[in-house]
Amino acid sequence: MMDGVFAAHGKSGECPVHDQIDLARRARYADGRQLSETDARANTYYSYVMNTVYTNRLCANMLYALLKDPALLARAQAEVDAVCEAGPVDLLALRRLPVLRATMREALRLYPIVAGIPRHVKQDFEFGGYQIRSGQKVYIAASVTHVLPEFFPNPHQFDADRFLPPRDEHHHPRAYLPFGAGAHACMGASLATLFTLTTMVGVLRAARFAIDPASYVVRRVADPMPGPNGFRVRVLPF
Hints:
Mean pLDDT: 89
Radius of gyration: 21 Å
Number of helices: 7
Strand content: 5-15%
Distance between the termini: 37 Å
């Protein structure tokens, strides 16, 4: 697939906005050499791979949360129906789904998909009484702040409204990091968001769902990344 994408890139004329292929072809190794074509393709493909890591788990987490909260499901269903009945569901239409987007953000907060962010230390520093040395590998537990009550009151309750005005609890700097932060934040973040919302619109528009039995509580397993395990639903016609 990437061979075809790279071969077709640029043939339709110059694009004023640089995409990931442009960035990969301009990237350099540490010694200043341009990336090989193979490495450029691998770096471009990475965001799509990361998108699949997020999208399937995130959609399952969202569906579980919606089915556990009929009132939230009704609100999300109403805005999905309104958007679909107004015309094609494009990027602008996806912006008119505040409840579904808030549900996605809350799912990322309470059910993080990436538990730790690996980094290499550039310079010595002290943290919590520990001496961290340059060159060491560390893992940043970015999801810890997601359950701190000073940022997210009643943190272990699924509450999509915390991501809607006037609360907007995710606006605390560096408190909400589902895709990491800074220059090395996940490259697949925008694709994961786009694909997840698009998928959920299609799912909610296509059928009704029910957890069977209704008392079922999902079990989350890291395999290799955290996600729902054994979660099944009954599909019902409208």
